[in-house]
Amino acid sequence: YELEKQQQFSDTVNPGDVVFDVGANVGFYTLLSSVLAGESGKVVSFEPSPRNFGFLTRHVQINAMSNVTLYQAAVADQPGEAMFDFADSNAKSRLSDAGTHKVRLVSLDDLFARGEVPRPNLIKIDVEGAEARVLRGARTLLASGPLPTIFLATHGPEVHRECLGLLREMGYRVRSADARSVDDTDELIATQG
After folding, report:
1. β-bridge partners, 35
2. What is the rounded distance in angstroms from the CA atom of residue 6 to the CA atom of residue 18?
3. Cα–Cα–Cα angle for 140, 142, 146, nearest 5°?
4. Is the dihedral of CA 164, 71, 67, 118 positive or negative?
5. pLDDT value of residue 2
6. pLDDT in tens, 167-193
7. DSSP letters of 129-160?
8. Distance of alpha carbon 135 from alpha carbon 20, whole angstroms
9. pLDDT at residue 129 above 80?
């Protein structure tokens, strides 16, 4: 599964790290992060889809992952509620005004300010088009300490351009996670510049 990305991700997570899995789906990167971060690390995973969240919860339980905290919520630029659209594929569901299901929204800034989540070393973001909203909702967290590495899957050229701008504005150096150029890929890795 996503072998090249998986290898780069695995090479980045160290024992003791804090990893945020934003758009956790059924938990592949949550479980991988849990193993790589080890008992001294922590994984915080976010998934708004009730179906996916059920699978995610079960996968964490089956594997006895004691270092994982789960949020049934979509990460965005501010806390609240929004409509969610279920696609034919559980990996393609997304926030949408045309959605049929209401989901809880959280922002990383708000959770961090309230002490609910620690400062991350790495953030994986794959949220089917809401990537810029996630970044905008983490500005204070990202600006208040060392920049965590971000693995970012973008969905659409406008969102891609906006995310590149936000990351660079925050002091990130951005590279492609595959053989394509930064402008042509949809898989980015952002590190402290």
Report:
1. none
2. 17
3. 130
4. positive
5. 74
6. 999 999 999 999 899 999 999 999 997
7. T-HHHHHHTTHHHHHTSSPPEEEEE--SHHHH
8. 13
9. yes
